[in-house]
Fold each of these.
Amino acid sequence: MKKVLVTRKLLRSCEDKASKLFDANLNSNDELYSQNKLLKLSEGCDGILSSLTDKIDEETIKKLPDTIKIISNFAVGFGNIDVEAARKRNIAVTNTPDVLTDATAEIAMLLILGACRRANEGINWVKKENWKWSSDFLIGKQLTGSRLGILGMGRIGRAVAKLAKSFGMEIHYRNRSRLKPEIEEGAKFHESIKSLFSVSDVLSICCPATKETKDIINKDTLEYFPTGAIITNVARGDMIDDEAMVQALNSRKIYAIGLDVYKGEPRIHSEYLKQPTAFILPHLGSATKKTRTAMADLAIDNIDEYFSTGKCKNIIN
Ligand code: NAP
């Protein structure tokens, strides 16, 4: 039986499955392992089932025991792993695409709705108990007829586009490569982020965290947006320069934000917590029982497939 280090606690049924297939070293206390502890626990293991909270950088990969042949990430994003360093050591890295698309797109829509319709302010008023209906109370921005810019029209971006269209939004997008018309389904492609941002009444960030996308929302690019635009991010916190965003909110250039993910999370820029129009969630994108089960099952299956066949369809390096 292959020995596998599972770095975070999984749902019970998934841990049972992992224990049936492997000699699984589970993390029943759900402790966040330091890099040193992860290295120590990986001694004698054949594979690691990691999560987005494990920073498996080049230095860590260089120190991994030779027995480690696969790192199966329990996420579709893999910005937490230096995949090139892993490739150099012949360690396969896998992810869990598709199974989390719908759940994450739901949260993307919640961010759009929450930010556009001033949900945070509404909740705060309800808690104060001294609110009253009036014709101009908490006037928000309506989705119908608004232009939605999608940065990263991949699996999640396209699912968001489909949902947003049913709310009457007009879809615009930017990818490095244009989609085929039948996949675009009427969405308008933009050759540059300047072009996309300038028509985005609402932006939904759905692209991966890479060197190219780091701080793609910054002091300069925030200027491209129409005044009063709304920016939402369901992908990764790395894409936003938080200081620039806070300034844009304070100046009312940006009307509201909807965030599920943060640079350096679980730390959140303290100014976001003071912004009345910020609708912010604690990284809930894939957090449904159905999806978390499917993700863990796929992460386990990736390891099983790799050890059984030497191949795996979800290898990313
Ligand atoms: P995907 O199918 O690979 O889509 C990513 C899209 O981003 C592609 O269309 C890609 O198109 C585009 N892209 C890549 N680099 C770009 C750039 N520099 N500029 C513009 N577009 C760029 O991935 P997915 O499954 O939709 O997942 C997207 C991301 O969502 C993941 O990487 C993950 O970080 C995040 N996520 C978050 C949660 C959560 O819990 N909040 C859950 C799941 C996923 P091109 O290659 O043509 O550029």
Note: The chain has two domains: 3-99+288-309, 101-280.
Amino acid sequence: MTAMDLRKRRYLEAMGIQVWVPRGIAAPALENESPPAVEHPPVFVEEAHTALIPAAEPAPPVLAPGAELNDPQVATMDWDTLTARVAKCTRCPELVANRTQTVFGVGDRSAPLMVIGEAPGQEEDKQGEPFVGRAGQLLNEMLRAIGFPRERVYIANVLKSRPPNNRDPKPEEAARCEPYLKRQVALIKPRLILSVGRVSAQNLLKTDTPIGKLRGQVHSYQGIPLVVTYHPAYLLRSPQEKRKAWDDLKLALRTLREATP
Ligand code: URA
């Protein structure tokens, strides 16, 4: 069994997809790697996690063309200044009124891989860290399956504040927040961006093309290769799509390897 086969098996098992092994053939151990830290994979797949579930994948948001807010100061900020600016950002009154705190981003600031999601959910708003709910656990497993434990990537969102009732970000909110994300990307200089979910992909790529058509190819954001995959919350609701997500992760890994000297 190749390393990729092993990773695939591990990914499928971690994500609650049954792996069939013919009778009499013992499944090989996974190359000195500890098993994925999934506490309850089957329950994990079946449960509905409404707090984290974005709107149905196919509905595209309409983005005002060139709507990004022009904020030249942000483009030169260092990490501390940027972090402080985001923490006291009041550009979106409705978000400010509803949030507990901003959710800046987390992880390795020199990571080759950056994950960009949609916006904080209830748990993220409470803890101040992206992807800490059930979808976050699945994201962690997806990353681990391609050899990137959570601590070795940088994770951020299109929006730094939770939209009320987890509604989709409004185009103007995404536009006001984009300078912060762009600065994060510029500071990290990742070799690859993994965009998770329709809202992330459509906002980053400034398109209303459905996610099904955006995945499977390498795009570019700020000159950095970008691969699109499904949002883990969507995968929790639609486990049959996990195999496609695995294809996306393989594409991401291949692209990352090609981009690494
Ligand atoms: N969904 C996201 O897109 N981002 C988070 O941080 C949590 C859930």
Note: The CA atoms of residues 118 and 200 lie 5 Å apart.
